[in-house]
Structures are given as C-alpha cells and as structure tokens.
Design brief:
Layout: H1 2-17, H2 19-23, E1 32-38, E2 45-47, E3 53-58, E4 66-74, H3 77-81, E5 88-89, E6 113-122, E7 134-138, E8 150-152, E9 162-168, E10 174-184, E11 186-187, E12 190-191, E13 194-195, E14 211-218, E15 228-235, E16 243-252, E17 257-260, E18 267-270, E19 273-277, E20 281-285, E21 308-309, E22 311-313, E23 319-322, E24 328-334, E25 337-343, E26 346-363, E27 370-376, E28 378-379, E29 385-386, E30 396-400, E31 407-409, E32 416-424, E33 435-442, E34 448-452, H4 455-470, H5 489-502, H6 508-518, H7 545-557, H8 561-579, E35 581-582, E36 585-586, H9 615-636, H10 640-661, E37 662-663, E38 668-669, H11 674-683, H12 691-704, H13 715-725, H14 729-736, H15 744-749, H16 778-787, E39 789-791, E40 800-803, E41 813-820, E42 823-832, E43 835-842, E44 847-853, E45 861-862, E46 865-866, E47 873-878, E48 882-887, E49 890-897
Parallel strand pairs: 2-7, 14-23, 20-30, 40-44
Antiparallel strand pairs: 1-3, 4-5, 4-6, 6-7, 8-22, 9-15, 9-18, 10-14, 10-16, 11-15, 12-13, 12-15, 16-17, 18-21, 19-20, 24-33, 25-26, 26-31, 26-32, 26-33, 27-30, 27-32, 28-29, 34-41, 35-36, 37-38, 39-40, 41-42, 42-43, 43-49, 44-48, 45-46, 45-49, 47-48
The protein binds beta-D-glucopyranose (BGC).
Beta-D-glucopyranose is lined by residues 478-479, 484, 488, 490-491, 591, 594, 767, 774.
C-alpha cells in the first residue's frame, strides 16, 4: 500500500512537472529504464571479464537527463527480487552515466549467472521503477579451468572436414548445461542430429597462436535422458588443419557438476565433405553421407577404416577467450533471377546485387550426378561468369547427388563474394526456389539510415552499405571474393567512421582492436593486416586505424576500457613510428594514398602507388595525427605525462611537415595536388595565413579536373571533408554527385551495387575487386555533413553531440537517423525557396548542440513558437550561416529563413 502511494505521488509530480511540455504536444510517459546490456549485449552468456553495464532511458519528456542511478547485482533472481545485491549494490550514485559501468569489486565465479537491475532518477528528482531484470553469465574465467586440451587427427586427409564424436548419458535433474567449444578453423555442434544455435563459421578469426575464441552454448534443451550423440564437424578454415577443444559442463539440481573434456570426443571420421576451404569452396559428395555418424553410441571398431582416434595436439597455443562479437549468420535469403541457360545444363543466376554468402540447392536426379556452382562478380560478354579477378580463389562449390529423391544442400565452411552463380550439371531446368542465395556475415545491426532528395546519393549510400555488409566476417575484410579477405589496416583508417555510422560496432571493434594488438611485437610494430596472415611488418604508417578503433569506440559507445587496455600498445606503435624519423619526417611508406585514378598512378599498369602524393608526406601526416589522438586519449584515462609528451611530439612533427612540405611559392603542400592539400587541411597543418591559399589551390585543382577527384583510398575522405568545412560544400557535393569517371556515380552507371577497389572498371586477373570498402568514406560524409550528426569525444557515448547540416548543391531535403547507446537521433531538413524546416530527435539523457541554418535568430521558430519561449532551448551563438542552440532531449521542429 505504501509503495502504491509513493507511486501515485511520483506520478502526480511527473504530471505537474510536465505541464509545459504538454503544450508542446509531447507524449508524456513515466521514466523507464530499458535496454539493459552487459558489454553491449543483451543477456549474454560466456562473459569472461567484468562486463560493462549500460541502459537507456525512455520517457518522451523533453529536456530529460539522468541525475542518478542505482544498480543491484545479485547471484540469483530471488536475491535480486528481494533487493539483496550480494555481488554489488551501488547505492544511489549521482551521475548521468549510463554506459561503460563496471567495478573491480565484483567477485565473479565461472559459469554463473548474475542478475541485475537499475533504477534511475531524472532532473527534478523523480525516480523510475526498477528496470526489468537482466542477466549476464560468466564463461571460464581462468585458463586453468580449461580441463580439456586440443585434439586433432593429424594424418587426416588435407582439406577434409573431420567429424569428432562423443556420446553421453546425463543423470536426472539437470539445472544447467553448457558447452564451451572451439573448433579451428570452423565448426558446428550437433546434438542428437540437431544443430545447436544458428551461428555459422564459428569461431571468430584471431591470431591463433595468441588467442583462440570459444563459444558458449546453452545445451540444456538439446539433451535427452538417454544416450546423446554430440557430433562436431571441423573444417580447416583459416588454421589449415582441423583442431577441436570442447568442454561440456552439466550442473545438476544438487549443485554437483559433471565435466566432459575433449577426451570424450576423440572418435573421429570423415564424411561427405571431401574438402572445404575458404577460398576454393566446398565439395560435398552426398553418396558419402552416413547417418550413423549422428546416431548415439560409440562407433564400433575404433581405428578401423571408418573411425580413428584423435590425438592430443599442443597447437594452437593461444589462450582461450570467450567470443564476444556477434557471430556470423545467414542474415538474408534472396531468390535470384535466372538469366539464361547458356548451354545444355548450364544456368546463370543473378542475385540482384554483389554480396557475400553462398547458394543453396534443391535438386532431384541420379546418384553420382555432379552439380557445380561457380561464383563471380561479373559476367563475360557471352554470359558465362567471369572469375578472373578472383585470382587464385576457385570459388566453386560442388554437390554430388545420392539419388535418393529431392536433395537440398548448402555449404557450411566456406563463403563467396559474388553477384552471379553459374550452375552446371542440373538434370533439368531449375524451378523457382531451387537455387536460393544466402547472405552471410557477422550479424551486426544496422545503426544508421540516410535518404535525400537526390536519388544518386541514396544509391551511393546503399552501395556503401552493401559493401560494408559484405565485408564483416569477424574481421573487417578488404574484400569477400578473391584470394585475400584480410583486415587491411590502411583501408580501415578511412573506413571506420563510415562503418560505425552504418552498423553497430560496439562489440566488433573492441574485438578487432584486440586482433590488431595481437600482431604487435616488442618493438611496437603492428602488421599491415590483422590477424597477421600476410603483408608487411611494420605496417604502413597510415595505419592510424589502430588508434582510431579505440578513439571511435570510446566516442560512439562510451567504452573507456578500450583506451585503458590498449593505450600502452597504441603508444608503442606511435613511438615506433617516431623512431623511424629523420629530422622528424617518417622514413618509409608502402601504399600511401593508395589507388588514385589510373592517370595519377606511379605506374598505370602497376600497383596502386600514387605518382604525385609523396608517401613520406602521408606517413608523417599520420604520425602527427596519431600523436594528437594519443594525447587526447591519455587525457581520458588520466595519463597526464603522456598528454603533454604526445602534444609536444605532435608540435614537433607539425613544424617538420610545414618545414619540409609547405611550398611558399605554390601556396600548397608537397605536390600541391588534391590529396596533399586536403590531407593538410584535415590535419590542421596550415596556419591562418596559409589556409586561404591552400583552399584556393584545392578548389582550383578540383575545377581543373572538371569537379572530379584525383585522390586514392585515404585522401578522398579528406577531400570531401576539407572542402565542406572550409566553405565549399557545393564543390564537395559536385564531386560526390559526379556520374562520369572517376566517381561513385560512374561505378553505379556501370552497374556497380558495391564499391570497386579501383576508380576504373576492370575485370581481369589483377587487383580489381568489385566489393571493396576502402573507397566508401563518402558514406560518413552523408551522416556528418548532410544530416550533420557528429559525436563529441569530450562527451562520449552521445552524452552530448552536434547536429549541423550543410544545405548544399541542389539538395532539397535529407533525412536520417542514428541509433546510439542513448537512443535514436533523428535529423531531417527540407527547404522551399529560402524557407527551411528542420526536424530533429534527441534521445533522453543527452544534449545536442544544434546548428540551425538561418540568417538570424529572430526568424527561427520551434513548433510555431519563438525559440526564446522554449525552455529546453538556449541560444549559444549566431554565426554567418547558423544559429547555434543547446537543446535537451525530445523532438523538435525548427523553421528558419536561409
Ligand atoms: C588490399 C587493399 C589494400 C592493399 C594494400 C590489397 O591487396 O586489397 O585493400 O589497401 O592491398 O597494399
């Protein structure tokens, strides 16, 4: 009864406080704490470190901020419900923080579920109810708890998938059943013939000699009170030879535990998959299917011709780490269009767009009939698939029929980058649905949306999103199709921002940051590619991506731990680069501003090295950039000495670049081309006296090339941004909306649905992928300058952010959104003549610095009222083109004259 009264009073207060907002027609609700996440995941299992807790507030009230929170973590749901925080009771903490919360005091045990809830207070002192309970469950917290070792069948035939098997009868009254498992390169787990979960290509890639990811499965619902058969097919994947490590832990109601180690899964055999490799594809002979494999029971006659006994192996030697990144899954199914029967039994299908994944097959025919599926991005003129640009990747899947009626199949341990599939050997003309396309990638949620009045920009946006989506396979790959598929750190330097606007990388980037850090040696060097599979050590100095991964993860998701954990590594990389300077100029470069248009290459028939943009200028610019980033990040974690030290280093490099590359005669940097001048502007290298000359040169150069770019993967980003920020958004817009070579519109005009690696349309056996994210930085330009949504490093996790749209070119309107850790940000504008309407949505517990394009503050209204009467809005400043406001949470509609 007392609780009810409190509730009533709270509600009454809420209503009273909210009266002015009712006028604003806002939907008033009581404050709710929702979306509880543990390390950016809802109710995860298998956490092997202290998870960072986060939540969101929901109320619909304007100007809502959190003033305090209270968290309770309990070792059981009963305790949580009784308010007994035996693991942690934070008490009421006065803070607006709602992300990245963890405490070293938490004493966690392995394989335990912990429940937690949150209460929040809003400005005005009103408290929410307790949230719904959430939980996180630990995995194996120490390496010693891995009682299982690695097993493998070393004489196993190369390329063959090996099936490991064990049978197990549990006792009655199971309380909890978990399987902790890693099979390298990749594996699936079947219990009693059923696949556990819907992940594919588990586990995530890593440098296996340093770290191996294991996955935790809740298997309680799969177990019978009878012999249970566990089968784990393991393919070579990126390791090269199958290996398995599995630990099954069954806890009974009486709290006793039974542990099955790898020893229980030593029976090993081969099956219908004759080979499966990432690049070449999968070969499946259905005549070799043996249902016996999946039946419970120890296979008869171990070491006979069918079954072998797996050995202990000490490889891979990396430590076991719980996989915290989104798994790879089938995220979409497409019915392709049958283009043509090219020759008897040869059909070509079109998925409608370039993508990463595979095809499924439904077929009926005689035993021994061989069907092959060839994957390609383009077609030859005669209609057959063109696989030339896949270089040494065969990209062919093969299925051999067993002839037992309708057969359905799809591969499991490979994937392809393709738009077209050439199917050969079909016994009859395929019906619709006989071939389906499965889109396969790390299952990250899309976080942003963008649309504008210019359909070309919308198509470019979609092309960028398609490309990014095709290149998320537990690492951000350079391409999904040819014999490469590596995480290239040079490309990533300009890709991160685009990717983080379009997809939720709150888990993916901390994982990838670890991959980069795992490549680091005692000298501080990292490698060109992470995990390190090939390429150079040290990496190209343009690999600022190492620092940007941490910086952006902190800025977007409020994850400070990535900075704490990786600061020393990032510092060692910057120190290494600094050790490679002569007179403060970095002494090496491999790629620099890679792959500018052909006429600007060092060798038009050679690699992607630029003729006019000096590599060392770019390398040194990145050292300057990184020294600043490091100093800023040192500040976040209170490393004061490094704040000063790396600012000083930045200052030293700044002087050196200006000394070495500023050309007083031309008024530009280095060769005075687009790349050099835009990079210099982006970095802030020219002082006030130089800036106008550099911009003038830059704009003239763009005009000289008839508003086309001459930049490569890196400086294309800086070109658009520097022009926009230095008073020439219309010039940037013209470049972005070109349809002739070189431009994104040119790619689209030539049928691209994903970005090319080169500005040219090339299809031969060389470096010319058709699904390459490195040229996609225009994707972040849409969010940053057309929608104008910009996070604030000093207020991470969108505690505060800006909205500053540029009204440019012939654009009449734009709209979009970004899902953040605080909720959805919306930004939309449209103009009619000189009248502008701008609609924005600011999530609870955030503040936005809103730049309303306007001639003066006097003409601006919000929801038909003068802005001076709206209490959530304060005017900060008036500039030539904008009125700058500070605005609290809520939805707003501004009208202004521009
Ligand atoms: C990769 C590129 C990368 C380049 C650097 C290529 O093979 O695909 O994305 O920038 O190598 O050399």
């Amino acid at each position: 009864m007392r609780r009810k009264n409190c509730h009533f009073i709270a509600h009454l207060l809420l209503v009273l406080f909210s009266i002015p907002h009712l006028y604003a027609k806002e939907q008033i609700q009581q404050l709710k704490v929702i979306d509880l996440k543990s390390d950016y995941e809802k109710n995860p299992i298998g956490i092997d470190f202290l998870p960072q807790l986060s939540w969101r507030l929901e109320s619909g009230q304007r100007g809502l901020t959190q003033t305090a929170y209270h968290i309770i973590i309990s070792s059981s749901l009963e305790k949580l419900n009784a308010g007994n925080g035996d693991i942690w009771d934070s008490g009421k903490i006065n803070s607006s923080k709602s992300t990245g919360i963890y405490h070293d005091n938490w004493k966690l045990k392995s394989s335990q579920r912990y429940y937690w809830k949150v209460k929040a207070w809003q400005n005005g002192g009103i408290a929410s109810d307790w949230s719904e309970p959430a939980f996180f469950e630990t995995g194996l917290l120490s390496q010693e708890e891995w009682l299982s070792g690695w097993i493998g069948y070393v004489p196993g035939m190369p390329g063959r998938v090996q099936y490991f098997k064990g049978t197990f009868v549990p006792r009655e009254n199971i309380k909890q059943a978990r399987a902790y498992i890693s099979g390298l390169g990749s594996y699936e787990l079947y219990i009693n013939r059923k696949k556990v979960g819907n992940n594919v290509l588990d586990p995530a890639q890593s440098s296996y000699s340093t770290r191996v990811y294991y996955v935790t499965y809740d298997i309680a619902d799969y177990l019978l009170q009878a012999p249970n058969s566990f089968v784990i097919p393991v393919a070579q994947g990126w390791l090269g030879s199958p290996r398995l490590r599995i630990q099954v832990e069954i806890t009974y109601q009486d709290d006793t535990m039974e542990i099955l180690t790898s020893d229980r899964f030593r029976s090993v055999t081969t099956g219908p998959i004759k080979y499966s490799t990432i690049f070449d594809g999968e070969h499946y002979d259905a005549r070799l299917e043996n249902p016996q494999i999946y039946e419970p029971g120890v296979p008869p006659g171990l070491m006979n011709e069918e079954w072998a006994w797996a050995h202990n192996t000490d490889d891979p030697s990396g430590k076991m780490v719980s996989q915290r990144v989104e798994p790879i899954r089938i995220v979409e199914e497409i019915t392709p269009t049958l283009l043509k029967e090219l020759a008897p039994g040869i059909y070509v299908f079109d998925a409608g767009r370039n993508l990463a994944g595979w095809a499924s097959l439904r077929v009926k025919g005689d035993a021994g009939t061989k069907i092959s599926l060839r994957f390609a991005e383009t077609l030859h003129e005669n209609g057959f698939v063109n696989q030339e640009n896949l270089r040494n990747a065969k990209a062919i899947d093969t299925y051999i029929l067993n002839g037992k009626g309708i057969e359905t199949w799809e591969p499991a341990y490979t994937y392809h980058g393709f738009r077209y599939v050439q199917v050969e050997g079909l016994p009859s003309k395929p019906l619709e649905d006989d071939i389906k396309i499965k889109v396969v990638r790390s299952d990250l949620k899309q976080s942003g949306k963008f649309k504008s009045s210019n359909p070309l920009l919308n198509d470019i946006h979609q092309m960028v999103v398609n490309t990014e989506a095709s290149n998320l396979h537990s690492v951000p790959t350079d391409c999904p199709q040819r014999d490469e598929r590596m995480g290239w750190l040079n490309d990533l330097t300009v890709r991160i921002e685009q990717a983080i606007y379009n997809f939720d990388h709150s888990r993916f980037y901390p994982k990838y940051l670890q991959d980069v850090s795992d490549t680091q040696d005692a000298h501080g060097t990292i490698t060109c590619v992470a995990p390190f599979r090939f390429g150079m050590r040290p990496a190209d100095p343009v690999s600022a991506s190492y620092l940007l991964l941490a910086q952006k993860t902190y800025e977007f998701y409020g994850n400070k731990r990535v900075i704490e954990e990786h600061f020393d590594g990032m510092k060692a990389w910057v120190d290494y680069l600094n050790s490679r300077t002569n007179n403060d100029i970095v002494d090496y470069s491999y790629y620099g501003d890679w792959c500018p248009p052909r006429d600007f290459l060092m060798d038009p028939n050679g690699s992607g090295v630029s003729r006019d943009t000096p590599g060392q200028f770019i390398s040194t610019g990145y050292l300057y950039y990184c020294a600043n980033l490091l100093s800023d990040m040192a500040k976040v974690i209170g490393r004061e000495a490094e704040v000063v030290r790396y600012k000083a280093l930045a200052e030293e490099i700044y002087l050196a670049i200006n000394r070495e590359y500023w050309n007083e005669q031309t008024g530009g940097y280095a060769s005075n081309n687009q790349a050099c001048n835009s990079f210099a502007l982006y970095l802030g290298l020219p002082d006030e006296t130089k800036v106008p000359r550099v911009i003038k040169n830059l704009v003239e150069d763009v005009k000289k090339h008839d508003y086309h770019l001459t930049t490569g993967n890196l400086c294309t980003k800086y070109l658009l941004e520097a022009l926009t920020e230095h008073g020439h958004p219309d010039v940037a817009y013209k470049i972005a909306t070109q349809t002739t070579y070189p431009s994104w519109g040119f790619m689209l005009a030539n049928g691209a649905t994903t970005l090319w690696e080169r500005w040219e349309y090339l299809t031969g056996d060389a470096m010319n992928s058709h699904n390459h994210p490195m040229m996609g930085s225009v994707g972040s330009w849409f969010y940053k300058y057309i929608l104008g949504i910009i996070p604030d490093f000093n207020h991470p996790g969108f505690e505060q952010f800006s909205i500053k749209p540029y009204i440019m070119g012939d654009l009449q309107s734009a709209e979009g959104e970004l899902n953040t850790v605080k909720g959805k940000i919306k930004s939309a504008w449209r103009r009619q003549g000189n009248n502008l309407t701008m609609e924005i949505g600011i999530p609870e517990n955030t503040t936005a610095i809103v730049h309303v394009p306007a001639k003066s503050v006097r003409g601006i209204t919000e929801g038909d009222r003068k802005i001076s009467t709206v209490k959530e809005i304060s005017v900060l400043e008036e500039t030539k083109d904008y009125v700058i406001l500070k605005v609290g949470s809520g939805n707003y509609q501004f009208k202004s004259r521009i």
